[in-house]
Amino acid sequence: MTSRRVVITGMGIVSPAGNSLDAFWNSLYEGRCGIGAIERFDASAYSTRIAAQVKGFNAEDYLPKREIRRMDLFVQYACAASLQAMEDAAYKISPETSGRTGVWVGTGIGGIETIEKQHNVLSAKGPGMVNPFMIPMILPNMAAGQVSILLGARGPCGCTVTACASGTNSVGEAFRFIQNNYADAMVAGGAEACIAPLAVAGFCAAKAMSTHNDDPAGACRPFDLNRSGFVMGEGAGMLVLEELEHALARGASIHAEIIGYGTSADAFHVVQPDAEGTGAVMAFERVLQDAGLEPGQVNYINAHGTGTSLNDALETRVIKTVFGDHARNLLVSSTKPATGHMLGAGGAAELIATVLAIKHQIVPMTINLETPDPECDLDYVPGSSRPWSIDAALSDSLGFGGHNAVLAVKKV
C-alpha cells in the first residue's frame, strides 16, 4: 500500500519568544532572547535563578474561567496553541470529519505545578481540602484529552512522554496515523509548564542548568566554548497535519510537507547521551531513509542544541557521521537561546521554527555563539539570521532516557 502524503496546514505557538507565529518568528529572526529572572516563585536560594517564561499569556483569551480552574497550566498552553493552529488552518471539525480527526500531545513532566500546589494544600489544610480535579489536572495525557474535547475530535487521541523528545515523537506518531489511513487530520505537538519550585530544584540538583544568573540573555550558549548548561523554558507548539488530498479538497493553505520520521533509543544511560552517538545516528539515518532523501538534499537542521557540553559536541559528531562531507555545506542552528529548553514542548516548537524557516527561506541564528568550540566546527549561523535556499530540512530532539527523534519536512 502506498503511504499517504501528509502536509502541515496550521501552526500555533505559546512560547517565551512570542505567543503568535509572527511574534515567534520575529524573535527568532532578530535574535531576541526570552530568558530572564524567575518571576513565578522566589528562587533566591536556587543555584539557577533564571528561566524562559511565557509572557503576556491570558488563558481567558481562549478558554472559559470555569474550565481554566480545572486545567494545569501546561494544558492551558496546549489548548491555546491548538486553537491558534486550527484558526491558522481554517479547519473546522464537523460531525462527518470528527471521527477521522485526532489529537496527539506530548509532555515531559505534565502537571507538576498542580502537584506542588495541592501537596502544599494537603500539608497545610489536610486531605479534605485537596482539589477534586487534581488527578485529571496532573495527568500527562490530559492535554490531549482536553484538546480533543475542546475541538470535538474523536479520532486517535493520546500522549507521548519521551522527555525532551516528546513533542517531536508526538508529531511523528500523528504523521504515521495519517500516513497509514487511521486518520485524515491530526492536531499534534507538545506542551510543558514546569517552571515550578520542585522541578527547578531537581534540575539544579542534577547540575544540568546554566547558573549564569547575572546574565540571563547570555546564559544559553549552544555550541559555544563557554556554554554551561541549558535554561528551562515552557509553552506549547501545536500543528494541524492533514492528508494531502484532504487538505486540497477543502482549499487549505499548506505550510510544508512532512516527508519522514526517524526514532531510536541510545540504550545507554538515563541522562547522558551515548558518547558514540550510535542511537542518534540511527534516528537520522532512519529519517533520511523514510523521507527518501540523500544526505546532500538536506539544506538545514534545527538542532537540539541545548547548550550543555555533552549534547552539543555529540550532536556535531552525529551530523558529521551521517552527512559526511555535506555536513560542511549544511546550516545548523539552535533556537533554544530564544525560547529556553521547552522540554516536552521543545520539539514541536522547533519544528514550527523549521517550517517558518522554509517558508521565509531564512535560517534563524544561533544566539550567543561568540567563541566557537573546536569540537563544534559546523556552520551554526552565528551573528545574524541568514537567507538560505531550503528545500528540505530536519528537526531533531534528544531526550533523557536516550530517546532520539527526527522529523523531515520539505517546501511545497
Topology, please?
Blueprint (H helix, E strand, L loop, with lengths): L5 E9 L6 H10 L5 E2 L12 E2 L13 H4 L4 H17 L11 E6 L5 H14 L8 H5 L3 H10 L5 E2 L7 H14 L5 E8 L4 H9 L29 E9 H6 L6 E10 L12 H14 L8 E3 L6 H15 L7 E3 L2 H4 L6 H15 L1 E2 L22 E2 L4 E8 L3 E8 L2
Parallel strand pairs: 4-5, 4-6, 9-10, 9-13
Antiparallel strand pairs: 1-7, 1-8, 2-3, 6-7, 8-14, 11-12, 13-14
Helix pairs in contact: 3-6, 7-13, 10-11
Polypeptide structure, described:
By secondary structure, this protein is α/β, with parallel strands linked by helices. It has 13 helices and 14 strands. The protein has helices at 21-30, 65-68, 73-89, 112-125, 134-138, 142-151, 166-179, 197-205, 244-249, 278-291, 309-323, 336-339, 346-360; strands spanning 6-14, 36-37, 50-51, 101-106, 157-158, 185-192, 235-243, 256-265, 300-302, 331-333, 362-363, 386-387, 392-399, 403-410. The strands form three sheets. Strands 5-4-6-7-1-8-14-13-9-10 form a ten-stranded mixed β-sheet, with helices on both faces. A two-stranded antiparallel sheet has the order 2-3. The mean pLDDT is 97.
